[in-house]
Amino acid sequence: MELINTYQLTLVSWFFAFLAAFLLGTSKAGIKGIGVVIVTLMAIVFGGKSSTGTLIPMMLFADLLAVIYYHRYSQWKYLKKLMPTMVIGVLIGVWLGNDISDELFKRLMAFLILGIVVFMIIMDRRKSTAIPKTRLFSNSMGLLSGFTSMIGNLAGSFSNIYFLAMRLPKNEFIGTAAWLFFIINIFKLPFHIFVWKTISVESLAINLFLVPAIILGFFIGIKVVKLINNELYRKFIIIVTAIGALILLFK
User: Fold this and answer.
1) For 151-179, what is each residue's pLDDT tens digit?
2) CA–CA distance from 64 to each of 31, 91, 101, 151, 185 (Å)?
3) What per-residue confidence (pLDDT) applies to 2?
4) How far apart are CA 57 and CA 164, in angstroms?
5) Domain of 64?
6) Which of 43, 77, 113, 135 is the most buried if burial means most Cβ atoms within 10 Å?
């Protein structure tokens, strides 16, 4: 307990931390688009940059649960398109992470996400079934996903948009995202430990206490996802992603 007391968390802070862990579990089970809420809650408890390191081990654990449960649905051809530029995006994030202001980052990401969501809504209203197959689109989404993942664990919005644009069915969407983030979060881990130094023995002790909330959220999330059909799931992701961008813009 002495390690945890280093953070001097209040009961309210513990509540926010457990809520963030619970929502992380539901998110990795397939309730996508709530990443901004999770990141915001963790930032309230641990501070902006410190919270990114506290969140990474939790995300890896939740990613592992998702990979185990949804692995048979993964579509590796989409991972191969996103992964190279996503890695580059992470490296750019490591390089610029100490210099870019939180305020500029939040505003820029919010406008980008909202712009792409509006484009997706327009395409849906036109009943367009065309899938953007250009390298420019996949490379842009990969780069933005990697950069935002390293800076603020917010890659989910851009990967969600990419998988929606590819019109992946619900389970393929979740399974492909599970492997994508499991791999990229493992890649990010050494940078948090050795470069940014945002992961410590104390933060890992906190992570252990939050594991039950992640597990609970994951299994509840699975039950909820089973109740949602593919078309409703697509609309849900678009709406929640847009709400997340608005929260990012005005918080």
Assistant:
1) 877 777 788 888 988 889 999 999 999 99
2) 16, 23, 32, 22, 11
3) 47
4) 27
5) 2-250
6) 113
